[in-house]
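Researcher: We're teaching a course module on how sequence relates to structure. For the next exercise, students receive a sequence and then see the predicted structure as C-alpha coordinates, so they can try to spot secondary structure elements on their own. Here is the exercise chain.
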Amino acid sequence: MSSLGQAGLLDTVAGGDVLPEGGEGYTAGSVYRMILAVFLENRLAIVGVGTVLFMVLFSFVGPLIYHTQQVFANPNISLDAPNLAHPLGTDGVGYDNLGRLMLGGQTSLEVGLAAALIAVTVGAVWGAIAGLVGGFLDAFMMRVMGGGNRRILFRHLIPNTMGTIVVNATFQVADAILFVATLSYLGLGIPAPATNWGGQLSDGVTYIFDGYWWLIYPAGVAIVLTVVAFNFIGDSLRDALEVRLQQR
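Model: And here is the predicted structure for the students to work with:
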Protein backbone atom coordinates (compact mmCIF):
# COMPACT_ATOMS: atom_id res chain seq x y z
CA MET A 1 0.00 0.00 0.00
CA SER A 2 3.05 2.32 -0.07
CA SER A 3 2.31 3.42 -3.64
CA LEU A 4 -1.04 4.72 -2.43
CA GLY A 5 0.70 6.71 0.23
CA GLN A 6 2.94 8.36 -2.38
CA ALA A 7 0.02 9.05 -4.69
CA GLY A 8 -2.04 10.66 -1.93
CA LEU A 9 -5.70 10.37 -1.21
CA LEU A 10 -8.00 8.98 -3.89
CA ASP A 11 -10.94 10.99 -5.23
CA THR A 12 -14.06 9.38 -6.64
CA VAL A 13 -15.16 10.80 -9.98
CA ALA A 14 -18.52 10.58 -11.69
CA GLY A 15 -17.40 8.10 -14.30
CA GLY A 16 -16.80 5.41 -11.71
CA ASP A 17 -12.96 5.61 -11.78
CA VAL A 18 -10.84 7.10 -9.03
CA LEU A 19 -7.99 9.52 -9.51
CA PRO A 20 -5.20 10.20 -7.02
CA GLU A 21 -3.81 13.69 -6.66
CA GLY A 22 -0.87 12.81 -8.89
CA GLY A 23 -3.21 12.16 -11.82
CA GLU A 24 -2.72 8.38 -12.17
CA GLY A 25 -6.04 6.62 -12.80
CA TYR A 26 -7.44 3.53 -11.19
CA THR A 27 -10.45 1.64 -12.48
CA ALA A 28 -13.33 0.69 -10.24
CA GLY A 29 -12.13 -2.91 -10.40
CA SER A 30 -8.73 -2.00 -9.04
CA VAL A 31 -10.38 -0.06 -6.23
CA TYR A 32 -12.39 -3.14 -5.26
CA ARG A 33 -9.19 -5.16 -5.23
CA MET A 34 -7.56 -2.61 -2.95
CA ILE A 35 -10.58 -2.65 -0.67
CA LEU A 36 -10.39 -6.44 -0.50
CA ALA A 37 -6.65 -6.25 0.18
CA VAL A 38 -7.18 -3.81 3.06
CA PHE A 39 -9.91 -6.04 4.49
CA LEU A 40 -7.77 -9.17 4.26
CA GLU A 41 -4.86 -7.41 5.96
CA ASN A 42 -6.90 -7.32 9.15
CA ARG A 43 -6.49 -10.64 10.94
CA LEU A 44 -9.50 -10.00 13.13
CA ALA A 45 -11.59 -9.69 9.98
CA ILE A 46 -10.48 -13.14 8.87
CA VAL A 47 -11.28 -14.52 12.31
CA GLY A 48 -14.69 -12.86 12.18
CA VAL A 49 -15.54 -14.23 8.73
CA GLY A 50 -14.33 -17.70 9.73
CA THR A 51 -16.41 -17.63 12.90
CA VAL A 52 -19.57 -16.53 11.09
CA LEU A 53 -19.10 -19.20 8.42
CA PHE A 54 -18.59 -21.82 11.13
CA MET A 55 -21.76 -20.74 12.92
CA VAL A 56 -23.76 -20.84 9.68
CA LEU A 57 -22.47 -24.33 8.84
CA PHE A 58 -22.95 -25.49 12.43
CA SER A 59 -26.54 -24.24 12.56
CA PHE A 60 -27.80 -25.16 9.10
CA VAL A 61 -25.58 -28.03 7.92
CA GLY A 62 -24.99 -29.58 11.33
CA PRO A 63 -28.55 -30.91 11.75
CA LEU A 64 -28.23 -32.71 8.41
CA ILE A 65 -25.29 -34.65 9.83
CA TYR A 66 -26.12 -34.86 13.52
CA HIS A 67 -29.76 -35.97 13.69
CA THR A 68 -31.71 -35.29 16.88
CA GLN A 69 -35.33 -35.23 17.97
CA GLN A 70 -36.33 -31.68 18.87
CA VAL A 71 -40.14 -31.89 18.96
CA PHE A 72 -41.24 -34.37 21.64
CA ALA A 73 -39.92 -34.24 25.20
CA ASN A 74 -38.18 -37.26 26.70
CA PRO A 75 -38.12 -36.96 30.51
CA ASN A 76 -36.33 -40.30 30.82
CA ILE A 77 -33.06 -38.70 29.73
CA SER A 78 -33.59 -35.20 31.11
CA LEU A 79 -30.53 -33.42 32.50
CA ASP A 80 -28.14 -36.17 31.40
CA ALA A 81 -24.49 -35.11 31.60
CA PRO A 82 -22.44 -35.04 28.37
CA ASN A 83 -21.84 -38.57 27.11
CA LEU A 84 -21.17 -40.44 23.87
CA ALA A 85 -24.84 -40.40 22.86
CA HIS A 86 -25.28 -36.72 23.76
CA PRO A 87 -21.95 -34.82 23.54
CA LEU A 88 -23.41 -31.74 25.26
CA GLY A 89 -25.86 -33.60 27.47
CA THR A 90 -29.62 -33.04 27.55
CA ASP A 91 -31.79 -30.25 28.90
CA GLY A 92 -34.59 -30.29 31.45
CA VAL A 93 -37.11 -31.99 29.16
CA GLY A 94 -34.75 -34.44 27.48
CA TYR A 95 -33.78 -32.57 24.32
CA ASP A 96 -30.27 -33.23 23.03
CA ASN A 97 -28.44 -30.01 23.90
CA LEU A 98 -26.07 -30.06 20.91
CA GLY A 99 -28.98 -30.43 18.50
CA ARG A 100 -30.82 -27.74 20.46
CA LEU A 101 -27.85 -25.43 20.02
CA MET A 102 -27.96 -25.96 16.25
CA LEU A 103 -31.70 -25.27 16.14
CA GLY A 104 -31.28 -22.18 18.27
CA GLY A 105 -28.53 -20.95 15.97
CA GLN A 106 -30.86 -21.11 12.99
CA THR A 107 -33.39 -18.84 14.67
CA SER A 108 -30.79 -16.44 16.05
CA LEU A 109 -29.00 -16.02 12.72
CA GLU A 110 -32.19 -15.81 10.66
CA VAL A 111 -33.70 -13.16 12.91
CA GLY A 112 -30.43 -11.23 13.08
CA LEU A 113 -29.90 -11.19 9.32
CA ALA A 114 -33.56 -10.42 8.57
CA ALA A 115 -33.65 -7.55 11.04
CA ALA A 116 -30.46 -6.09 9.61
CA LEU A 117 -31.72 -6.43 6.04
CA ILE A 118 -35.00 -4.69 6.80
CA ALA A 119 -33.39 -1.93 8.87
CA VAL A 120 -30.67 -1.22 6.32
CA THR A 121 -32.98 -1.35 3.30
CA VAL A 122 -35.58 0.95 4.79
CA GLY A 123 -32.93 3.24 6.26
CA ALA A 124 -30.95 3.52 3.03
CA VAL A 125 -33.98 4.26 0.86
CA TRP A 126 -35.42 6.70 3.37
CA GLY A 127 -32.07 8.48 3.77
CA ALA A 128 -31.45 8.61 0.03
CA ILE A 129 -34.86 10.13 -0.65
CA ALA A 130 -34.43 12.60 2.21
CA GLY A 131 -31.04 13.60 0.85
CA LEU A 132 -32.39 13.90 -2.66
CA VAL A 133 -35.33 16.15 -1.91
CA GLY A 134 -34.19 19.76 -1.51
CA GLY A 135 -35.19 23.33 -2.04
CA PHE A 136 -35.14 25.61 -5.06
CA LEU A 137 -31.37 25.98 -5.09
CA ASP A 138 -30.84 22.21 -5.14
CA ALA A 139 -33.35 21.88 -7.99
CA PHE A 140 -31.65 24.68 -9.95
CA MET A 141 -28.18 23.19 -9.51
CA MET A 142 -29.46 19.75 -10.45
CA ARG A 143 -30.92 21.10 -13.68
CA VAL A 144 -27.53 22.82 -14.58
CA MET A 145 -25.42 19.45 -13.98
CA GLY A 146 -28.22 17.75 -16.15
CA GLY A 147 -28.82 14.80 -13.77
CA GLY A 148 -32.31 13.57 -13.03
CA ASN A 149 -33.54 12.29 -9.70
CA ARG A 150 -33.07 8.66 -10.67
CA ARG A 151 -29.51 9.23 -11.83
CA ILE A 152 -28.59 11.14 -8.68
CA LEU A 153 -30.20 8.50 -6.47
CA PHE A 154 -28.65 5.40 -8.03
CA ARG A 155 -25.42 6.85 -9.42
CA HIS A 156 -24.32 9.12 -6.62
CA LEU A 157 -26.26 8.98 -3.36
CA ILE A 158 -26.59 5.23 -2.80
CA PRO A 159 -23.16 4.20 -4.24
CA ASN A 160 -21.35 6.79 -2.13
CA THR A 161 -23.08 5.64 1.02
CA MET A 162 -22.76 1.92 0.30
CA GLY A 163 -19.72 1.54 2.54
CA THR A 164 -21.58 2.99 5.51
CA ILE A 165 -24.65 0.88 4.70
CA VAL A 166 -22.67 -2.39 4.57
CA VAL A 167 -20.80 -1.61 7.78
CA ASN A 168 -24.03 -0.69 9.54
CA ALA A 169 -25.60 -3.94 8.37
CA THR A 170 -22.96 -6.05 10.14
CA PHE A 171 -23.52 -4.17 13.39
CA GLN A 172 -27.28 -4.49 12.95
CA VAL A 173 -26.96 -8.28 12.79
CA ALA A 174 -25.00 -8.35 16.04
CA ASP A 175 -27.46 -5.98 17.74
CA ALA A 176 -30.45 -8.02 16.57
CA ILE A 177 -28.96 -11.27 17.89
CA LEU A 178 -28.37 -9.64 21.27
CA PHE A 179 -31.87 -8.14 21.26
CA VAL A 180 -33.51 -11.49 20.51
CA ALA A 181 -31.35 -13.16 23.15
CA THR A 182 -32.38 -10.52 25.69
CA LEU A 183 -36.08 -10.94 24.94
CA SER A 184 -35.78 -14.71 25.23
CA TYR A 185 -33.84 -14.37 28.47
CA LEU A 186 -36.72 -12.30 29.85
CA GLY A 187 -39.20 -14.97 28.81
CA LEU A 188 -40.55 -13.05 25.78
CA GLY A 189 -39.00 -15.23 23.08
CA ILE A 190 -40.50 -17.75 20.69
CA PRO A 191 -42.50 -20.61 22.28
CA ALA A 192 -41.24 -24.21 22.51
CA PRO A 193 -40.34 -26.44 20.81
CA ALA A 194 -38.70 -23.66 18.78
CA THR A 195 -35.76 -22.02 20.49
CA ASN A 196 -32.82 -19.67 20.12
CA TRP A 197 -29.58 -19.16 21.96
CA GLY A 198 -31.10 -16.60 24.32
CA GLY A 199 -33.91 -18.97 25.22
CA GLN A 200 -31.45 -21.78 25.91
CA LEU A 201 -29.42 -19.48 28.11
CA SER A 202 -32.54 -18.44 30.00
CA ASP A 203 -33.53 -22.07 30.58
CA GLY A 204 -30.01 -22.95 31.66
CA VAL A 205 -29.87 -20.22 34.29
CA THR A 206 -32.64 -22.08 36.12
CA TYR A 207 -30.06 -24.76 36.89
CA ILE A 208 -27.13 -22.43 37.54
CA PHE A 209 -26.62 -23.68 41.11
CA ASP A 210 -27.09 -27.35 40.24
CA GLY A 211 -23.88 -27.84 38.29
CA TYR A 212 -25.49 -28.33 34.86
CA TRP A 213 -22.87 -26.23 33.07
CA TRP A 214 -23.72 -27.67 29.64
CA LEU A 215 -27.06 -25.86 29.76
CA ILE A 216 -25.43 -22.44 30.18
CA TYR A 217 -21.98 -22.14 28.65
CA PRO A 218 -22.55 -23.47 25.08
CA ALA A 219 -25.37 -21.03 24.31
CA GLY A 220 -23.56 -18.16 26.01
CA VAL A 221 -20.34 -18.84 24.12
CA ALA A 222 -22.25 -19.09 20.83
CA ILE A 223 -23.85 -15.67 21.40
CA VAL A 224 -20.57 -14.02 22.36
CA LEU A 225 -18.57 -15.53 19.49
CA THR A 226 -21.17 -14.61 16.86
CA VAL A 227 -21.69 -11.06 18.07
CA VAL A 228 -17.94 -10.41 18.38
CA ALA A 229 -17.34 -11.94 14.94
CA PHE A 230 -19.85 -9.60 13.28
CA ASN A 231 -18.28 -6.66 15.10
CA PHE A 232 -14.83 -7.68 13.84
CA ILE A 233 -16.21 -7.79 10.30
CA GLY A 234 -17.92 -4.42 10.72
CA ASP A 235 -14.79 -2.74 12.04
CA SER A 236 -12.73 -4.12 9.18
CA LEU A 237 -15.28 -3.12 6.54
CA ARG A 238 -15.36 0.37 7.99
CA ASP A 239 -11.64 0.66 7.31
CA ALA A 240 -11.78 -0.99 3.88
CA LEU A 241 -14.87 0.71 2.45
CA GLU A 242 -13.92 4.31 3.09
CA VAL A 243 -14.77 6.61 0.20
CA ARG A 244 -11.26 7.95 0.48
CA LEU A 245 -8.46 5.50 1.22
CA GLN A 246 -6.11 6.99 3.75
CA GLN A 247 -2.35 6.77 3.48
CA ARG A 248 -0.89 3.63 4.98
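Model: If you want an answer key for the exercise: Confidence is low (pLDDT under 50) at residues 1-26. DSSP finds eight helices and two strands in the chain.
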